[in-house]
Amino acid sequence: xxxxxxxxxxxxxxxxxxxxxxxxxxxxxxxxxxxxxxxxxxxxxxxxxxxxxxxxxxxxxxxxxxxxxxxxxxxxxxxxxxxxxxxxxxxxxxxxxxxxxxxxxxxxxxxxxxxxxxxxxxxxxxxxxxxxxxxxxxxxxxxxxxxxxxxxxxxxxxxxxxxxxxxxxxxxxxxxxxxxxxxxxxxxxxxxxxxxxxxxxxxxxxxxxxxxxxxxxxxxxxxxxxxxxxxxxxxxxxxxxxxxxxxxxxxxxxxxxxxxxx
Length: 262
Prior knowledge:
The longest helix is centred in the middle third of the chain and has 18 residues. This protein is 40% helix and 16% strand. It starts with a strand and ends with a helix.
C-alpha cells in the first residue's frame, strides 16, 4: 500500500528520541508522504524545518490551533503569512474552533479562525481545519469564506451526521483518524464513514494522539505514530466494503491532489 498521512504532529516532544526510526517504521508500513501539522507559532516553524530536512517525504502546514488562539496577534499573523508562502507548506492550519476544552476564550478563537481563513483566501492555500463542539459557529465562518479557498479538509472528523453533510455540501474533504477504532466513542463514525464520497475521504493518524484502541498488542508507551495509518486504512476499508489497497490508493490520490504534491 502507498498511504498519505494528512495530519501527524511530528513536532511533538515524544518523537525527539527516535524520530528517524519512527519515519522508517512509517515507510515500511507503506506511508509514502506525511503532512506535518503546524498548530502554534513555534510548532509551525518546526514543521517547516523538518519538512525541509525530508524533501519529498514530509510536507508542512502553518497555523494556530484554537487552543492557542488567545495570543494570536499581528506578529503571529505576519509569521503565518510568511510561512504559508514557503513551498514546503501545503496548507493553512491547523485552525478552527474548539468549544469542548475552551482553552482560549471563544471570541478569541473566532477571531483567530477568521484571520487564518483570510490567509488561505489571500494566498489561495488549502485549509486544514479543527472543529469540536462548535459546529454552528464554525460552519458559518467557513461558509462565508469557502468559495474563495481552493480546498478544505475538516481534519479528525468526529461529529454527527448533520455536521458531516454540512461539510460535504461545502465540498470539503473529511479526515478520518483512529477515533473510528474506538469502541467507546467511535461507533457512529463506523456508519458515517460509508457515506463519505470516495473522492472526499482522507486518512490520518493525528499522531502522537488517538492511538487506535483495537491494535493488539497495545504499545506500552501508548504513543500513536504514522505506521499505524495502515491499520486505520484497513478498518476504514472493511467498514466501506472495500479492499484495503483500493482505499489506500484512493485516499492517497485524494491527498496528493488536495495538497498539490506529486
